[in-house]
């Protein structure tokens, strides 16, 4: 049940009698900050009073008179300048809890408007090892697909692999020049990865060398600009006639110029470090000297692949399955699956058709030999085909959109992709209308960057991105330290064997990484800090999993105490509304938290923000912890108290388990 939605509906009806725009005010309902004043509060009457020229308190009284809400709450109070405080009725809470227990969906309704939704997520460029940057799309996309499916949408997940781009040119070049076919055949995955790294390092080296002169010129310009600005600022600062505002402005501008200079300086430093890495390694330096212009050569290999060159096609066909094995290993560990994996290569043959169609529609313009589409509201065009005939990322996305429209016939497509691609998606979405696909809702579910513990982009010392697999291993190892330490293990009965420990460490480690990502608003950057992620306290998956394990441990012990084999089924069969008596504040608070589950799911879906579900689970786990401290379950002889508390424990376990499942996170029966 979505309590807020229910209250909104009732308020809407009541407000109807006072204004012809009830929808503007019905939504002004919040969870009350202090339970002393009730559970929910509406502050609609202040703005409404202003609008209709009546005192807010009078308006509030009229609203309360018109409200038909007695099945849900006590008669609402009017407070302060015109707040309406709402206290849920005990019977309402009890009967809702009983309903939730009897429902395998724990009271979460399915949507009234099911849609067919394609979710394009993960979509790494294969041929290079997955790095930490890939975690976000994979984890957020997976959580959204689980959640949207749970509420009844038909979800089609599609991993739009980058299996056709320059990165294949890189391994083809690497293989041809540095590869040993026997070694690659014997151990393809790591060998291809190291060929990728080697070739890429040469590319970066040669690009760095080529860019240095230009960077130095830019630096000199920036330095003199910074000096000029500084001098100008000093002059204004010592000018008695200048206002404080003018002085501040001049200083700000001088500071900005200084920062630009510093940032170019640091670019040069990292460029020089890249160069030094190769120069200091005799073998690498020799390779770099021997192979001229690797970047251009790699582009030629890519172009040959696209043109159908037999040798490069054969190599691509040979390598691709190994690249897929590599990413599938990570998906297996993360428990992520896809309905489709239609990579960029799948659309290759359709690309000329896209250009042709755009030509026919009169949407294209030739500019500098390239085929472009100029769109209203954008400064730069969308390039569809380069002058050398090559197609682009955007061309493939257009072909993919057509395919999804025709074959999947979907209502909505979510692209779970880094926010740095926003401009691409804005332009690309603007093309849907002219192409006759305005029927599909296109959404860029964008996200920020994963930073290192220090708040800077996460890189290894040599500047390459840290491999995803080593981060997963690390999280699992830390999870084991935290959850399976000797002190905790000594309390376990029966004792916990090595196998169970490893299993728990894997579930906790994967959960930690996923939850750390999902619990931040997707558009903000976050710091990857393994120690914080696996902490037993705080807004972590570990805390939620631990809370779940506590519910299960209590249920096992009560089952033993009462001689009942399956306590969950027993509660399901033996509970009715009068059995639930919420006498303690901690019981009531936990019951309300549990009832808010659907509301949290709806909120997480509305803006594609799984962090709202995380926040909800955290609040619920905290309410459970307070309940646990205050309300004894075990050894309780009063049958009503026992049933009430057992019901709350059972339901807490189910809500946390289901909530984590929607986030792609598992639980363990004991920890
Ligand atoms: N492979 C792309 C990248 O790594 C992401 C693809 C996202 N999906 C899409 N349809 N463009 O940047």
Automatic annotation (TrEMBL):
EC number: 6.1.1.19
Claim: Ribosomal protein is one of the keywords in the record: no
Domain of life, source organism: Bacteria
Subunit and partners: Monomer.
Gene3D superfamilies: Arginyl tRNA synthetase N-terminal domain, HUPs, Isoleucyl-tRNA Synthetase, Domain 1
Organism: Rhodopirellula sallentina SM41
Broadest EC class assigned to this enzyme: ligase
Protein name, as recorded: Arginine--tRNA ligase
Lineage, uppermost ranks: Bacteria, Pseudomonadati, Planctomycetota, Planctomycetia, Pirellulales
Family per similarity comment: Belongs to the class-I aminoacyl-tRNA synthetase family.
Domain Arginyl tRNA synthetase N-terminal: from-to ranges: 5-88
Motif ('HIGH' region): 124-134
Keyword field contains ATP-binding: yes
């Amino acid at each position: 049940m979505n309590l807020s939605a229910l209250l909104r509906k009732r308020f809407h009806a009541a407000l109807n009698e006072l204004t012809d725009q009830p929808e503007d005010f019905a939504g002004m309902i919040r969870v009350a900050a202090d339970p002393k004043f009730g559970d929910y509060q509406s502050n609609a009457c202040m703005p409404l009073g202003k609008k209709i020229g009546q005192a807010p308190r009078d308006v509030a009284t009229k609203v309360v008179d018109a409200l038909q809400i007695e099945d849900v709450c006590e008669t609402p109070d009017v407070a302060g300048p015109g707040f309406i405080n709402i206290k849920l009725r005990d019977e309402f809470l009890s009967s809702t809890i009983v309903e939730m227990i009897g429902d395998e969906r724990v009271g979460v309704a399915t949507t009234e408007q099911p849609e067919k939704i394609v979710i394009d997520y993960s979509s790494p460029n294969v041929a290079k090892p997955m790095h930490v940057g890939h975690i976000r799309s994979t984890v957020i996309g997976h959580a959204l697909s689980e959640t949207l499916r749970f509420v009844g949408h038909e979800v089609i997940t599609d991993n739009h692999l980058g299996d056709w781009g320059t990165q294949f040119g890189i391994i083809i070049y690497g293989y041809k020049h540095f590869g040993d076919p026997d070694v690659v055949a014997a151990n393809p995955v790591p060998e291809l990865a190291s060929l990728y790294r080697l070739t890429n390092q040469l590319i970066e080296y040669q690009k760095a060398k080529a860019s240095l002169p230009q960077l130095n010129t830019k630096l000199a310009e920036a330095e003199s600009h910074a000096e000029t600005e500084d001098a100008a600022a000093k002059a204004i600062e010592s000018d008695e006639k200048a206002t404080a505002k003018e002085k501040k402005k001049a200083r700000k501008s001088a500071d900005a110029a200084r920062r630009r200079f510093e940032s170019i300086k640091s670019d040069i430093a990292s460029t020089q470090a890249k160069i030094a890495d190769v120069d200091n390694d005799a073998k690498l330096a020799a390779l770099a000297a021997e192979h001229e212009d690797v970047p251009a050569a790699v582009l030629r290999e890519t172009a040959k692949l696209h043109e159908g060159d037999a040798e490069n096609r054969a190599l691509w066909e040979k390598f691709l399955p190994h690249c897929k094995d590599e990413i599938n290993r990570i998906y297996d560990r993360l428990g992520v699956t896809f309905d489709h994996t239609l990579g960029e290569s799948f659309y290759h043959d359709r690309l000329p058709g896209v250009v042709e169609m755009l030509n026919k529609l009169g949407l294209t313009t030739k500019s500098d030999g390239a085929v472009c589409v100029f769109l209203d509201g954008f400064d730069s065009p969308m390039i569809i085909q380069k002058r050398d005939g090559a197609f682009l990322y955007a061309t493939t996305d257009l072909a993919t959109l057509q395919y999804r429209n025709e074959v999947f016939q979907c209502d909505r497509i979510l692209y779970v992709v880094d926010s740095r691609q926003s401009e691409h998606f804005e332009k690309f979405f603007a093309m849907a209308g002219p192409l006759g696909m305005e029927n599909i809702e296109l959404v860029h579910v964008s996200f920020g960057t994963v930073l290192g513990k220090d708040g800077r982009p996460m890189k290894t010392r040599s500047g390459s991105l840290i491999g995803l697999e080593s981060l997963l291993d690390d999280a699992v190892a830390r999870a084991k330290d935290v959850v399976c330490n000797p002190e905790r293990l000594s309390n376990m009965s029966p004792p916990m064997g090595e196998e169970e420990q490893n299993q728990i460490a894997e579930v906790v480690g994967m959960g930690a990484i996923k939850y750390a990502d999902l619990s931040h608003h997707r558009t903000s950057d976050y710091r990857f800090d393994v120690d914080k992620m696996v902490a037993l306290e705080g807004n972590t998956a570990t805390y939620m999993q631990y809370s779940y394990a506590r519910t299960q441990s209590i249920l096992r012990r009560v089952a033993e105490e009462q001689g009942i084999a399956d306590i969950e089924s027993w509660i399901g069969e033996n509970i009715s509304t009068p059995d639930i008596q919420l006498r303690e504040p901690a019981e009531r608070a936990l019951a309300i938290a549990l009832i808010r589950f659907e509301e949290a799911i709806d909120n997480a879906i509305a803006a594609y923000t799984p962090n709202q579900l995380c926040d909800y689970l955290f609040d619920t786990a905290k309410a459970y912890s307070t309940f646990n401290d205050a309300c004894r379950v075990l050894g309780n002889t009063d049958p009503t108290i026992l049933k009430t508390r057992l019901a709350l424990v059972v339901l807490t376990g189910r809500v946390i388990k289901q909530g984590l499942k929607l986030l792609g996170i598992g639980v363990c029966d004991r920890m």
